[in-house]
Amino acid sequence: MTLTGRAVFAGRACAPLFTVRGPLSFWGGVDPATGRIINARHADCGRSLAGQVVAIGELVGSSSSAAVLLELVANGAAPAAILLRQVDAILVVGCLAAREIGETAPPVVQLGALPEAVDGTVLRVIADTAHEAATVSPEREARRG
Fold first, then answer.
1. Catalytic residue flag (residue 63)
2. Which of 36, 41, 48, 136, CA to CA, is 20 to 30 A from 30?
3. Is the pLDDT at 144 greater than 70, yes or no?
């Protein structure tokens, strides 16, 4: 299973998959110090985004999402990569801001469909150039190819 999408923010990552169940707001929904989902009504409350390839079907937009992502990066609690069905430009602003202050932000990839792999499957994300093709594949397949 190799998926091809569009690199929204360039970068590479190799980490376990965490598919977020349901819409997620970074503002008020994610603790910027730890990366844990803190919205008590969210199905994944208590789970951490930190160091994961996070697949999100729907983001609940807020202009503060960029600030939360920037804090996650600065605190070492950011996702390793973010896979989205629909691009959220405000979230990407957080990646751009992180880069501007010398931090490494997670690659962001837009996919037509999110990976159907089991959570915990290690995925390799290759998004070398923004606005061009990106690939997402299980790590063992990436090594063979």
1. no
2. 136
3. no
**Residue matched to tokens 């609940």:** 60
What pLDDT digit, counting tens, does each position of 13-27 carry? Answer: 999 999 999 999 999
Bridge partners, residue 7, by sequence: 109
Q: How many helices, marked H, and strands, marked E, lie in the chain?
A: 3, 7
Q: Tell me which amino acid residue 29 is.
A: G
Q: Do residues 22 and 37 touch, judged by C-beta distance below 8 A?
A: no
Identified catalytic residue from 25, 48, 62, 64: 62
CATH class of 17-120: alpha beta
Sequence-ordered alpha helix ranges (H) in the chain:
65-74, 89-100, 139-144
* Residue-range domain boundaries for the chain: 17-120
Question: In angstroms, rounded to a whole number, what is the distance separating the alpha carbons of residues 50 and 116?
Answer: 20
Least Cα distance to 61 among 79, 36, 32, 86 occurs for: 86
Q: What secondary structure letter does DSSP report for 119?
A: T
